[in-house]
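User: Quick one: structure for sequence A, then sequence B.

Assistant: Sequence A:
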Amino acid sequence: MKVNMQKETFSISNCPSCGSSAIRKIKGKWSGTYRGKTFTVTALEYFECPKCREKVYPPQAMRRIQQSSPAYAKSRAVRRAS
């Protein structure tokens, strides 16, 4: 697996799961669920292997997912014991 992370670039030439060189960069809609809440990230760029369906998310894609996720939303005020 060849990964280049200089200047926020990320490229991969082989699938880390099956070793196929058919892995390709795609741009699409991604949906996730956290504690019953569904959230969607549009126009997300990531890599997907057509042979084994493995998905590899670059750091920038992971940041976008985290920004949209309710899991990373600011939590409510914490109650203090009296």
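Sequence B:
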Amino acid sequence: MRKIALSYLQDAKSCLEEAKQASIRGDYARTVSRSQECVEYAVKALFEALEFSYPFIHDVGPQLLLLTEDERLPEDLRRDLPKIASLTTSLASKRVIARYGNQRAGIPAKELFSKSDAEKAIHDATFTYTEVKKLLNKG
């Protein structure tokens, strides 16, 4: 396995832990931001482990769908790829606003996200991280 894949997986784990801590503090925007980073690192770890070329952008959900027929992946993960791709795209769409807020309207990020937003982000990040980790631990 490529060292960078393992490094990205460790980064994903760190981001997930930081997201959980931010949620405990009531910092829901930071929770969403760190959850997005967790998902991005986890998916890129998968790409690196498979030596799959991907663009250097934050939303790699569409590229993930290209792996649904990749027989190197277990059937259950291939079945979950559309869900993971959707989670990746959804969280990536919140990335900028979770960090910087709505600058035009003058609304800080912390006022734009609720506890339920944070809980969903953590749930989605945990699911993605867990699925990728299972595969990488087999390799």
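Residues 20 and 31 are 7 Å apart (CA to CA). Residues 3-138 form a domain with the Four Helix Bundle (Hemerythrin (Met), subunit A) fold (CATH 1.20.120.330).

User: Thanks, that's what I needed.
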